[in-house]
Amino acid sequence: MEKMPQWADVVLVPLVSLLLASIISAFVILAIGESPWAALKLMVNGALGSSYGWGYTLYYATNFMFTGLAVAVAFHARMFNIGGEGQAILGGLGVALVCLYIPWPHWSLALIGATLGAALFGAAWALIPAFLQAKRGSHIVITTIMFNFIAAALLNYLLVNQLKAPGMEPATPKFAQATHLPSFQDMFSFGDTVLFRGTPANVAFFVAVLACIAVWVLIWKTRLGYEIRAFGHSESAAKYAGISPTKIIVVSMLISGGLAGMMAVNNVMGEAERLVLNAVEGAGFIGIAVALMGRSHPFGVFLAAILFGFLYQGGAELALWTSIPREMIVVIQALVIMFTGALDNMVRAPLEKAFIAFSKSHAKAEG
Amino acid sequence: MTLMTKFLSASAALALTAGAAMADPAVLFDLGGKFDKSFNESAFNGAQRWAEETGGSFNEVEIQSDAQREQAIRRFAEAGNNPIVMAGFSWASALGEVAADYPDTKFQIIDMVVDAPNVRSIVFAEEQGSYLVGVAAAMASETGTVGFIGGMDIPLIRNFACGYVQGVLAANPDATVIANMTGTTPAAWNDPVKGSELTLAQISQGADVVYAAAGGTGVGVLQTAADEGILSIGVDSNQNYLHPGMVLTSMLKRVDNAVYDALMAGDALEAGFNVMDLANGGVGYALDEHNEALITDEMKAALDAASAGIESGAIMVHNYNTDEACPVYDF
């Protein structure tokens, strides 16, 4: 069977999708009487044109890398974990408890502790849906999305009643100074040149990159990863080969939930330095689009996360400097998600046909 | 070619607006967005009123994530906007960190206190306004059961509920108050369908007056109350007109005035801590042609007495935020 070359699958399809999304976005912007070219320039300059822009882009990208990897790992076992939102909320709770109640001597130890806490809480939140799927056949999509609401309710309850700092705001007290993670500004500014001024990007970005590498190793270089992929391709074949479905469902969901939870190291510990309501802000759902666009490959997730980070930061610049309403910016972001995620086959199928037709005529000419 | 000219002129216009930002004030809205039919919209209306009366213009932003708070404040401060007005308690921690970096810029934050020499903090005595509408609710109720529908279970809304219950019990010590919250995510501030369901549930428990303190969700509460033939109470801005003759009154929280006054003051904005309460017109209840038939003389007299009592200090309405407890209602 003929296929299109790998580079077309990985690079060309997303690029064409992206191009289509931007063309339609341009019409949307034109329709409300603004210039698409100026808007694009503003987005690119604002998100990628300075260390300041990158500081925000990479901050958002870090969030999306964690949640994107979480969805990708579950995808490999053919499970649709849409509970990243709730798992990241619980991860935030783990980070908050670790940072508030343990007196850390140094941020590096705190980072390790918080990462473990976040992963543990996120994984625990994924355990119940995984168990229900493995043992009772309750569909993982239904249970994980319901667990998002339970997580939000739990956090609301804890922040209003147990963990609240004095004052009106439902938020925990600020974490101790010792748990402050070095921001890019702390790390990359030398002498008088201050780079990444005031931006939230922090050392958690490197944790996310490590997580990308770890997931790659796990999925393609380990026995467990092989079992996960085998199970994802065919459950009956995997069973025949002696792979336990229960084990694979539970373990892959635990890894997935742990990764989603680890997002909290970036947004709760690195940025806010306290736990607030609604800290996740939809990153759990963006993770689905990131995983789809990245074809569930860690490197693809890495690139897609940066693209979505760009869309978020570029969107913020649009909101700050133009009169393009916030809702329009959401429309633009949604168009990109729709084209790269949901309408993937619309681009893929014709491209595939074109490639096959091309290679056939090529073969004929040579023969 | 014409398309190209259009692009060019548009980018020129964009550059011009960015340049014209100097010295204009800026208004920063919270995550709910400026058309939330409630708190943010009230702030927006105040700024609009200022712009119409003075012919001035203001910059604004509706943020999409918490990480943008510091970014937005810094951007506007660096662009020379002055004063910068923020609506919502969630701005406090970002403003607390940023304010000192821009000593020449005046900031105003609404619903929270930030202690800095260039920040004006405004908090509203929501419990006082809620107390008054509670008195009205108890007197209008025939069943002796009244309802409260909040947005999210957060201290701010607990303060509304606590003041309301105090007012209800002051007018009718035997009354029952049913309180419900809409949800646990920010969607709760804009969920009219859920508001409608909760109203129906409260009606089935006997409630015949329902007070909504839930942003856009309240629209559903008021609608359902009108459909089912019971009275409702609006919040933040005057919502009496939504269903004339069916909305008993509205608890007014004059966020618009707070924004209007700040923009009027310009860079002469006075820093410090301000409470907008009943005495200075910051909170109150709405009385207009849409509800004058509902507010009986007896009710009016009771409301006037309660207002006078609160202003003179004879009636102390407990503020939930002082000790995070409500003496008359257990959350």
Report on the structure:
By secondary structure, chain A is mostly helical. Chain A has one domain (14-25, 49-182, 196-343): Orthogonal Bundle (ABC transporter involved in vitamin B12 uptake, BtuC). Chain A has helices at residues 6-31, 36-48, 51-76, 84-101, 107-136, 140-162, 184-188, 204-221, 223-233, 235-240, 245-272, 283-293, 298-321, 326-342, 344-366. The longest helix of chain A has 30 residues, at 107-136. In chain A, 50% of the residues are buried. Chain B has 331 residues and is α/β, with parallel strands linked by helices. In chain B, 42% of the residues lie in helices and 19% in strands. Chain B has a six-stranded parallel beta sheet with strand order 2-1-3-4-5-11, sandwiched between helices. A six-stranded mixed beta sheet of chain B has the order 7-6-8-9-10-12, with helices on both faces. The longest helix of chain B has 18 residues, at 2-19. Chain B is globular, with a radius of gyration of 21 Å. The chains are: A mainly alpha (367), B alpha/beta (331). Chains A and B meet through helix 2, helix 3, helix 6, helix 11 and helix 13 of A and helix 1 and helix 3 of B.
